[in-house]
């Protein structure tokens, strides 16, 4: 016989930090479930997000095991499927939407109906391409209630957050031309602990927003030099 576990109090130790009634009204979209995105999705599931959508076209390779915390049995599976299964194991109550595809402008159409029904749309951009970041921003900035972007190179992290995306002029200025981007492979210099810290910084902006606290629009952290800059 399978023991029935009462999950009503799964969030009892965080309720004064993460208001459950506001959390329940959010539909959260994580675009890219590589190093940072997988950690963001897992943390969101643990926090108790009610509705979580994961978008990524990629599959798990052996090179993803150390830097992205995938499991050996995940190899050759789609990243959204493997991450979704882990999120559901952490929180069986989460409603998952898995999109095994690249982000497309049509995603905005699917999200607009949720927004029209009174839900809050929260977007976590966790991709490694400036071009894709620009596409995500252009497609969703007028739809999202909160937009958080995480970037990582080796042991350097940058997290940008906007609680008024439709009127934000700061974030678009960070979308520099693709030819100015770091030219190395996204898997060349990556560690899971850097990704986990980046994800924690991103999710903390989300919980601050839920509480109505001011956000840091731009946070840069260099783990090697222990230098943190926030504005």
Brief synopsis:
This protein is an alpha/beta fold.
**Whole-number radius of gyration?**
17 Å
Helix-strand topology string:
HEHEHHEHEHEEHEE
- Overall 3D form: globular
What are the segments in which pLDDT stays under 50 over at least 5 consecutive residues?
A: 181-187
- Total domains: 1
**Highest-level CATH class:** Alpha Beta
Average pLDDT score: 92
Strand line-up in the sheet with most strands: 3-2-1-4-5-6-7-8
Main sheet specs: 8 strands, mixed
Distance between the termini: 54 Å
- Structural class of the secondary structure composition? alpha/beta
CATH topology grouping: Rossmann fold
CATH superfamily: NAD(P)-binding Rossmann-like Domain
Count the E strands.
Answer: 8
Strand proportion = 15-25%
- How much helix is in the residues? 25-40%
User: What is the number of helical segments per DSSP (H or I, 4+ residues)?
Assistant: 7
CATH architecture: 3-Layer(aba) Sandwich
Question: What can you see in these coordinates?
Answer:
The protein is an alpha/beta fold. It has one domain: NAD(P)-binding Rossmann-like Domain (Rossmann fold, 3-Layer(aba) Sandwich), CATH 3.40.50. Helix content is 32%, strand content 20%. It has 7 helices and 8 strands; from the N terminus they run αβαβααβαβαββαββ. It has helices at 20-23, 35-47, 64-68, 79-90, 106-116, 130-140, 192-210; strands spanning 26-31, 51-55, 95-99, 120-125, 146-153, 156-162, 218-222, 227-230. Strands 3-2-1-4-5-6-7-8 form an 8-stranded mixed β-sheet, sandwiched between helices. Helix 2 (35-47) packs parallel to helix 4 and helix 2 (35-47) packs across helix 7 (192-210). The longest helix is centred in the C-terminal third of the chain and has 19 residues, at 192-210. The radius of gyration is 17 Å and the shape is globular. The N and C termini lie far apart (54 Å). Residues 181-187 have low confidence and may be disordered.
């Amino acid at each position: 016989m399978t023991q029935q576990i009462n999950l009503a109090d799964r969030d009892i130790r965080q309720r004064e930090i993460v208001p459950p009634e506001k959390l329940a009204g959010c539909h959260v979209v994580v675009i890219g479930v590589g190093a940072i995105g997988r950690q963001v999705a897992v943390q969101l599931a643990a926090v108790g997000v009610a509705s979580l959508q994961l978008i990524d076209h990629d599959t798990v390779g052996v090179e993803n095991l150390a830097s992205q915390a995938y499991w050996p049995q995940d190899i050759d599976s789609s990243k959204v499927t493997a991450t979704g299964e882990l999120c559901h194991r952490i929180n069986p109550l989460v409603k998952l939407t898995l999109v095994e595809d690249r982000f497309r402008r049509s995603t905005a159409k699917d999200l607009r109906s949720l927004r029209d029904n009174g839900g809050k749309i929260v977007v976590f951009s966790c991709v490694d391409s400036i071009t894709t970041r620009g596409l995500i921003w252009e497609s969703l900035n007028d739809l999202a209630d909160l937009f958080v972007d995480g970037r990582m190179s080796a042991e350097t992290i940058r997290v940008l957050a906007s609680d008024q995306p439709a009127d934000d002029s700061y974030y678009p200025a960070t979308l520099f031309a693709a030819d100015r981007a770091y030219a190395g492979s996204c898997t060349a210099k990556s560690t899971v602990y850097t990704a986990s810290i980046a994800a924690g910084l991103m999710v903390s902006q989300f919980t601050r927003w839920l509480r109505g606290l001011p956000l840091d629009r731009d946070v840069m952290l260099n783990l090697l030099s222990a230098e943190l800059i926030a504005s």
